[in-house]
Amino acid sequence: MKSLTMKRLTTKGVKANHFFQVRRIFWETRTYIFLWYLVVMVVFIGLSVPFFSILILRQVNARVEEELGEELKAFDTLIEEKKRTEEGLTHENLPKFLKYYLSVRLPEDDTFLITILDGDFLSYSPRALPNTVWESSELMNYFLQLDKSERNRYKTSDPDIGDIMYLTRPVIAEGQIRGLFVVLHTTAGEREEIVESETTVIKVLFIVLFFALILAWIASGKILAPLRSLSTTALAISESDLSQRISIKGTGEMAEVAMTFNTMMDRLEAAFTSQQALIKDASHELRTPITIIDCYLEQLQPDSQEQKKIVTLLKDELNRMNRLVNDLLLLAKAERPDFLNREIVEIGSLTEQLYNKATTLAKRNWCLEVKGTGRIIADPQRLTQAFLNLAHNATKYTSEDDVIVVGSTVSKGKFSLWVRDTGEGIDTAHQKKIFERFERDVNGHRSEGLGLGLAIVKAIASAHQGWVELKSQVGIGSTFTIVIPL
Description:
Blueprint: H1 2-24, H2 29-84, H3 94-104, E1 111-117, E2 120-125, H4 138-145, E3 150-154, E4 164-173, E5 176-186, H5 188-223, H6 225-239, H7 253-299, H8 305-333, E6 343-346, H9 347-358, E7 365-368, E8 375-378, H10 380-396, E9 403-411, E10 414-421, H11 428-431, E11 441-442, E12 445-446, H12 453-463, E13 467-473, E14 477-485
Parallel strand pairs: 7-9
Antiparallel strand pairs: 1-2, 1-5, 3-4, 4-5, 6-8, 9-10, 10-14, 11-12, 13-14
Helix pairs in contact: 2-5, 7-8, 9-10, 10-12
């Protein structure tokens, strides 16, 4: 039953961790690179579509103008051939010739041929002219008055016709201008082709964008893999030991970062190992003389009152040194993976036990504010040790009339255990330093003790992947909270 409950709690923790990992992905460097790439690609597409439209429009206009020019060139060629015939091109046969030309000449789609003779409309091809160029239209009246070659564009508001591109050529017979030959083209069809082309291009670009974003996400992941390895390694180091290293692959900036990190970790591991060895050796070596001195003091039979005071003083100092050695060994063990003996702990029951133990430390106005509900996987002995350190610390800076409140809660995936007092408080300048080892300077004066109590509390919280929060105001009091993620 116990293992099943622990498995359920672990599963909840994994689900919560997965939620925070999914949430964190929106704030990592890979996502920023991806979003910048997305912005650049969208801007590129947004600029390329209008540019593409302008380019296609120019190409279509050039093609239409070329076709109109070829049509006009064919008309000029036939005129010249007619003039070189025996009959020639005269005033009498000109109408017949123009009608004949339109009857045998089949223009391209949306292209129209119009002939004007002696200021009057003569004929056209094909037979269905758009309304804009019908006999009574504004454009046709303009053509009736025109007697010179012209290349131009006539804008209309009719979407079925579009703009009209046209070329004109005066018709000359026997040295006189008798009429006008007009080649015109409505651009509505080309406009539809451009819109269809734009739609196709946009679809293709978005398909390309989709696959490009997938490749960008994969590529950015591979590029930033050493950084993720760096983060994973750093996390593993903070949880266990300093032996983890990043595998170095290839060359370049990322490889240099990994190499520099590994070199730094080599130095840190050497320094850390040396420091731990020194603390352990010193602690073990100090225990022997402390024990010997204590044994000799027990055997002494002081005669005078002065000698008894000296023996008592020496025993107090030996006890203080013994506590110092034990605290140093505890801090050294806190870095080891086997520092905690985890088990399922009832939060409400643990809180009540801690409160009962705290009330025996000193005569204060103790108060149990609230008890959290549920269970947590933790080391109850270490939590008790950390809590009693906080409670003992609260008694040192309060008087018998002060209030010390303890309690626990479970909220937002975190277990909180706190001690709040109405003592003298801690100023802002000293709030961060008091968690350092051998730090006893509080509000400008040195306190009693060895300066390791809060460092031990911090080490126990860190071993549970948690932390210690401090809220304090001088003259009002302090609140120390141990926070442990569930």
